[in-house]
Amino acid sequence: MHSRRLEIFGPYLLLLATCVAGWWFKAHCGASWIGDEQYITGCYSDAVPFWGLRGVAAGQIPYVEARIEYPVLTGALIWVEGLIARAIGGAGADAADFLFVVALVNTVLAFAVLRMMERAGVPASRRWWWAGAPPMVLYLGHNWDMLAVALAVAAVLAARRGEALSAAALAAIGTAAKLFPILLLPLLGLQTLLRGGESWRERIRSACIMTVVAISFWAMLNVPVAVRSFDHWSEFYTFSRERGGTAAAVWEIMAAQGWWASDIAARNLWSFVAFTGGAAAIVLLGWRRHGGQAWVLFTPVLAWFLLTNKVYSPQFDLWLYPFLLLTSRRLWPVAWFVAGDLAAYWAEFWFFASPGGGGMGVTQAHIAIAAAFRAAAMLWIIVDAVRSPAPEWLTARALTPPPATSPQPEGRPRPIG
User: How many helices and strands in the chain, by DSSP H and E?
Assistant: First the structure.
């Protein structure tokens, strides 16, 4: 009985401690930064500059009155969190209040992911790994990517249950928060088109319905804002196209090491070519094993997207982490990835502080080493995901659920997640 209670409630208690640590890790610097402390101590958070520079403190409406370089659902979340922060702090509300609310909302989303994992029958060991995740400490208060992460997890688990339309809708909503959940949609479409047991007419019809559902949910969130203020709505896409890259992205590393200097146009082109070519190879090579549950390939496709993108911000590792726990056959490569995440995080932030003399002399070469260590783990994970079958727990319950009239074995979670 005691072990059963620990299995059920233990991950939730650990996650609470992890989220408190994540809030403190960003909040210990307060509402403003002195010198390079946000980089030296790692407490940088987008919430602090956004409070004053994106109209949050003034209550400005995103896209209508304020410029926000995020998709609309994240912009709406930022506005709501600002409203709560001003209600909590009153006339004296500051960036620290806003950071607290951001961390609190992300905590709720992290608990939602854990609950989804539990309902899906994810093994307890993997739920413990989510609950005690180092990336959660690093990024809980960093920005707003947890919203898209939670929606993407919900979409993948819906696909696992065979609810293709729900998965497409959730992925489309997630795309309105951050772009990466869109990578699930082609996999869902291919699985619908290439599944057996139906005529081509029926499969094409199902794929068209899925496409309409995805576009409708995305448009429902985006079109009203785009019609009202197109320039501000499109800021996310313009900003993404025009930014040069980040220090830990492969294109910037190659330029910094003198291997290949590329301008923004070249990076836009070659990152697209590298991603699409690699993603197509992942799907083609992985289809023999995973064609019946193509959503399993979302993990290696997302990992490849991160590796080839011209922007690899530190918090992007949080995108991948829950899907590694859901789909990886082994956990030791996940630990390897987490070690690389920690190394890349501190290398990048201490590099930012180094010009001011406070970063312990970290250079772009150190960033390259840390990023290469992380990339090696991701490449191993990609190859293993393509060549190996998915974990038995992931597919068995989804594909062969017990009959409705069969008694449920004691202590075994029902496959309802």
Answer: 20, 0
